Amino acid sequence: MQFSALNLAPDLLRGLTACGFSELTPVQAQAIVPARRGKDLQVTAQTGTGKTAAFAIPLLQRLLDAAKPALACRPRALILTPTRELAEQIANAISSYAQFLPLKVTAIYGGAKMGGQASKLQAGLDILVSTPGRLIEHMALGNAILSDVEFVVLDEADRMLDMGFSTDVLKLLQMTSAARQTLLFSATTSPAVNELSHKILKNHQQIRVAKTNSTADTVEHVVYPVEESRKIELFEQLLAEQNWFQVLVFTSTKEQADRLLADLQKAKINAAVCHADKSQGSRRRAIADFKSAKLQVLIATEVAARGLDIQGLDYVVNFNLPYLPEDYVHRIGRTGRAGAKGQAISFVSREEEQNLERIQKLIGSTIPRVVKPGFEVSNRASLLKNISRKVLGSRSNKATATSIEISKPAAKPKAKVKKAR
């Protein structure tokens, strides 16, 4: 289906054409029409399927259909996201779609100066994109008032719940118009997401574009078994042998990210890191350098798993498997986007085998293993079996020793010697 068939405002269609939009993706085809009609939606779709346009286009069209002047501090549409990177990306995307429209888009998030953001809010706006925590801070200062909000979008709602934003989200929604339209988008579904949807949506329509918690068909998955202590060595060898370029690497902790960065820099590999201890400016520069191919490797923690949209990203490496299986879906969603091919490579130590089993159960398929010569490692099941044998052997030896000890004939009592009278 073509965007031209949606009967959109000419200047909105002009903006979409300038952005290279022609045919709707499946999530756009299913969500745009009911959203434009004012229906509340709960949408579950894989990362990288065009979800931003799926909620932004009907939102922009509805704002145009009931045009009002932009007011200071009073947005008409609110989009909540879990991370600053995603907030910035969504605001940039919507600004591109609306480049020929008289609508103002503003993004606010942590890590940037409050004063500059307050000035933008007071200058007037139509659409506000924000992280929950930063929005609450601005509301406490009177810089943002939500009573005029007619449209609410929760993007990556599952991730917001994982990050503990449930209370903040509910608090913010209570400040918006009771007659608002609400759209809830997530890459995965869970009891917590369903519970939230029933609290905030009214007579909503559910849209599931792909199998629940599935990954894109365009992504090839592979696992490299390796000892934890040899992961850096394996990564550097694969980089050299397979000529990987523009590789996004996920670690589980900031310490692991910093350690990997130090080793790559020693090996003269252009790399940068993106995690919560880095300033917003530093993170923005790292992402910009990576997108412009100045960097070969970008190392990130879970904070970057949402919101990174890098055209032509071929490789995502899980240096460590995520603790939550759902986060695997979000991480690898950075590759294989919009129909392009991608590879998801995971380094799995024996200690991470259970995490791998949970991930495979979630995505409904077994991930192929590649054993790299020189990096062979026994799997966790074998390890547990060996431990069990040792434990049982140890118990058996103790039992035998005890048995032998018990079976020793009791010492004969010494014969009493009669004393002479």
Structure explained in plain terms:
InterPro entries: DEAD/DEAH_box_helicase_dom, DEAD/DEAH_RhlB, DEAD_box_RNA_helicase, Helicase_ATP-bd, Helicase_C-like, P-loop_NTPase, RNA-helicase_DEAD-box_CS, RNA_helicase_DEAD_Q_motif. It comes from Alishewanella jeotgali KCTC 22429. Belongs to the DEAD box helicase family. GO terms for molecular function: ATP binding; hydrolase activity; nucleic acid binding; RNA helicase activity. Helices cover about 40% and strands about 15% of the residues. The longest helix is centred in the C-terminal third of the chain and has 28 residues, at about 380-405. The model is unreliable at about 400-420 (pLDDT under 50). Helix 3 (about 50-65) crosses helix 4 and helix 13 crosses helix 14 (about 355-365). The strands form two sheets. A seven-stranded parallel beta sheet has the order 3-4-2-5-6-1-7, with helices on both faces. The protein has about 425 residues and is of the alpha/beta class. The protein is built from 15 helices and 13 strands. It folds into two domains: about 5-210, 3-Layer(aba) Sandwich (Rossmann fold); about 220-365, P-loop containing nucleotide triphosphate hydrolases (Rossmann fold, 3-Layer(aba) Sandwich), CATH 3.40.50.300.
